[in-house]
Amino acid sequence: MTSRIVRLANFVMPRSGGLRTALQALGEGYLAAGHEPILIVPGSVYSDEATGQGRVITIPGTVVPGTGGYRVLLARRRLMKLLERLEPDRLEVSDRFTLRWTGRWARERGIPAVMVSHESLAGLLTFAGPLGNPWADLLNSRSFRSYDRIVCTTSWAAAEFRRIGAENISQVPLGVDLELFNPSRYDDSLRARYAEPGQVLIVHCGRLSSEKRPERSVEALVALRKRGIDAVLVIVGDGPLRARLQEQAHGHPIRFMEFVAERTAVASLLATADVVIAPGPIETFGLAALEALACGTPVVVDAASALPEVVGAAGVAVTNDFAGGVLQVLTRPAAARRADARARAEQFSWPAAVAGFLAVHHSSSTVAVR
Fold this sequence. Notes:
- Keywords: Glycosyltransferase, Transferase.
- InterPro entries: Glyco_trans_1, Glyco_trans_4-like_N, Glycosyltransferase_grp1.
- It comes from Dactylosporangium salmoneum.
- This is Glycosyltransferase family 1 protein.
- The chain is of the alpha/beta class and about 375 residues long.
- It has two domains: about 5-175 and about 350-365, Rossmann fold (3-Layer(aba) Sandwich), CATH 3.40.50.2000; about 185-345, Glycogen Phosphorylase B (Rossmann fold), CATH 3.40.50.2000.
- It is built from 15 helices and 16 strands.
- The strands form three sheets. An eight-stranded mixed beta sheet has the order 3-4-2-1-7-8-9-10, with helices on both faces.
- α3 links the parallel β7 and β8 (about 115).
- α1 (about 20-30) crosses α15 and α8 (about 215-225) crosses α13.
- The protein is elongated and about 65 Å long.
């Protein structure tokens, strides 16, 4: 049965980011399956356009200070009127902050609603100190009681809900574009641009913000060179920490790439790298790491995050020693480690993710969670 699936999300940058990638891939999948997806996101100006992922409506949103331009939807009355006009059959909300009220709104109207947990609220609130966990538990409790289902992409992401007794949890992993992110993207000329013959090419690909801990990649490069490893680092991404990282990287063989509009260029760099570092400690899935694996490049990840669950034996999980993790990757024959990385990524596809999300939608009800 065809459904009008209205999707809402905050913190969606217009050009890049894992959430944007996931929303687009899921929307394209819903559309291909015969549904009518409509995505509502914040932006600088209002727009309403038909796209490959369905209809995308942008509503002026408020910039969150210190985030490098991320916006959130705050105009509840305006958004409520828009939802009433759109008459959704189902609601999918990728936000746990200013949009939580939409779960109750949907329930009052008999509209099945799911919330997708793309971030760890408990993890984010650790930056607030010891009071973080109680607040996270309170807000998570309100979330799981407001929606028919909570979709988590890993068991790690689901743990903060199960800890407080939530039973309406569905676990559906995200996917990767296995054609775009492919070992065939390896480029000798690109490698020559960033590394000299014999050098180890390391890549960090991600937003340069505090919760992603990008400084760990810089520290790893410095530590490797102190250990006598002739390595270079390329950092792909932007964010509020960029200037500070450039200062930290001064005097070391570290290159910063500006935003890359062409995803094929990112795929080529990932495929050409020897190792990718994904140092974020509160990643709930890690699309950039999965994209690296799809390109045949092993990833060193934080053992405290969900990434060990995603990369499996194709990566190396460390507590703090990312330089040691890189060395551990390099001890394996290049052909074997690249084949293992690709094989691991092939276990995650967007068609499977879309099917999983649609199954959650069709199984959800509007029965209150007690």
